[in-house]
Amino acid sequence: MSLFCLVILEGSSLPTGMWVDYAKSLLVLIAICLLALVAVKIVLPKVTSFASPTPNHFHVLAKYPLEPRKTLYLLRTGKTVVLLATSAEAVHFMTTLNSEDFEDVAVLARTDTSTSAFRRIAQSFADRKQDKSR
User: How far is it, in rounded angstroms, from Cα 5 to Cα 16?
Assistant: First the structure.
């Protein structure tokens, strides 16, 4: 027992060794944190992309708020364009629209930001209807 106490006392007589061990431990901790950060930022997104290879097939072309919790949405799903009405309680299917009419309108809705996208699309359809009636 006295030999064990002697070894402990000899180790404590060198305080510089303790600080060197502390610095080594701190450097190892920093290295582990950096490695974890690299894993989260680089490796994790690549691994999770294999888990969900299907892209988002829903594209919101436009939305128009009616009341505080009621909204109209124009959604493109594949080659189909649908008009949906949402409220706090439910989602209601309104109608299916002709998808060919939305090819140039969707580009217009993304580029012009002076008014709402829904209003620009509705105005575009109203202008087309007037041109066809003439």
Answer: 20
Secondary structure (3-state) at 89: coil
Judge whether 120 and 109 are in contact, CB under 8 Å: yes
What distance in Å separates the CA atoms of residue 100 and residue 124, rounded to the nearest whole number? 13
pTM of the model: 0.43
Look up residue 47 and give its two tokens: 């691994």
For 69-112, how does the pLDDT look when each residue is reduced to its tens digit (9 = 90+)? 899 888 888 778 888 999 989 999 888 887 776 665 555 555 55
State the DSSP string of 34-65. HHHHHIIIIIHHHHHHHH--PPP-EEEEEEEE
Q: Are 84 and 91 spatial neighbours (Cβ–Cβ below 8 Å)?
A: yes
| DSSP summary character for residue 117 | H
